[in-house]
Amino acid sequence: MPHIYLVRHGRTTANKDGILAGRSKGVNLDNVGLDQVLKTSFALSEIKFKKVFSSPMERCIATTEILLKNNNYKSKLQISNDLNECDYGYWQNRKLKDLRKEKMWKLVQNSPSKVTFPGGESFLNILNRFKKFVIKESNKLKKDDNLLIVSHGDPIRLFVSYCLGIDLDKFQKVIIDPSSITIIDIWKKDTLVKTMNTRIDLISKSKSVLGGGAG
Predict the structure, then answer these.
(1) What sign results for the dihedral spanned by CA atoms 58, 75, 186, 203?
(2) Which of 63, 109, 179, 182 sits between 20 and 30 A of 55, alpha carbons compared?
(3) What secondary structure letter does DSSP report for 122?
(4) Strand pairing partners for 19?
């Protein structure tokens, strides 16, 4: 089976300030995020990626560029809108503490399958576009090829939930932290979640190599 590496972008200024950034422009990695991604890059340094894709958002592109600095990947980074953050519509760029007061908040947390953000998209649409993209690209790979995708929390959580057979209404129980690594083996429609939400910055302060290295 091909191996799909899903990495969430590092911590951003919006994450730090409790803001739902969505597709807002100018949201960049903060110093903590830069450090997180650097440590993650050491873990992925010896993985030979067949292709590398990123969401078009600046925070994901910046994360991908750091990851590839310590990797021998020579091909061009590819951008796909299918990997983009959720279009939160009128919720975008608002503080989470204020959004929690909205009537729709409980629906977002408990019945996300019924949610379409005002002026934005539904969780189901996020899942469908992300899933379609990953399956399409994985079908182009050979056995043991590696694919790197850098995206956002909700798209990755939704796809991981799908791979685990978790109902969409339960996807909020899945945690995907900034700069975490999730590895999924996929062949046609068969999926195997090998590791989820692995945070290198918490595991070790050394230059750990994921899946290998001495000792």
Answers:
(1) negative
(2) 109
(3) B
(4) 95
- What is this structure's pTM? 0.92
First-to-last alpha carbon distance for the chain, in angstroms, is 26
CATH code given to domain 3-203: 3.40.50.1240
The two tokens of residue 173 are: 């129980």
Closest CA to 117 of 19, 17, 22, 9: 22
The dihedral built from the CA positions of residue 162, 103, 151 and 17, taken in this order, carries a sign that is: negative
111: which residues sit within 8 A by CB, 6+ positions away? 169
**Per-residue model confidence as pLDDT tens digits over 81-100:** 999 999 999 999 999 999 99
Phi (first) and psi of residue 67, to 5 degrees: -60, -40
Amino acid at position 206, single letter: S
| DSSP-based three-state secondary structure for 79 | strand
